[in-house]
Amino acid sequence: MDDQHDLSRPRGLHGVDHRIVSALRACGADPRVAGAARALSWAGEHGAVWVATGLTGAVVDRPRRTAWLRGTALTAGAHATSSLVKRVVRRPRPAHVEPLVGTVGRHSFPSSHATSAAAAAVAFGALGARAVPPLAAAVCVSRLVAGVHYPSDVAAGAALGALAARLGARWMTGGPA
Fold first, then answer.
1. Residues 6+ apart with CB under 8 A from 14
2. What span, in angstroms and rounded, lies between the C-alpha atoms of 138 and 75?
3. pLDDT for residue 169
4. Mean per-residue pLDDT, 12-40
């Protein structure tokens, strides 16, 4: 490899991020995978699937209605926090791959989809919603396959969401905050 080529290749964590998103975005060449990534990305936009899940839980599980509503509030709050962090960090989205989906903004760190997904997985998982954690993981992966986030964006978003839900767990279940 010559020096000129070596200078244009990202190194370190950024290089790993580039290579992983390139490999996962390539999976989106399969129309079925692309369709699933698009559907999951759409469902996770603004945490919509998680708000719907929480509100449905509140209607169906009346004895724990307050916990479901508080879990929904924690999830929405985590999403909003992620959006604020994104405005401070201002990391651009991957430009080296063609995205499968449009995005609301041009910044990628942290992934707000991953933040709300992880918050919902922790909050609603604690209420016994066993389908939420695997769906949350699928939403996170969809952002990589769609080519709109780096793995570190998704990891940071997931950590932020899980932490927010964990910190609010006592409040969610009726204990002091």
1. none
2. 17
3. 86
4. 82
**pLDDT at position 5, please?**
42
Q: What is the pLDDT of residues 39-70, one digit of tens each?
A: 999 998 888 999 999 999 999 999 999 999 99
Give the separation between CA 50 and CA 48, rounded to whole angstroms: 5
In degrees and rounded to multiples of 5, residue 92 shows phi and psi of -70, 155
What pTM does this model have? Answer: 0.86
- Ramachandran angles phi, psi of 150, nearest 5°: -85, 155
Cβ–Cβ under 8 Å, residues 108 and 72: no
In this model, does residue 89 exceed pLDDT 60? Answer: yes
**Beta partners for 92?**
107
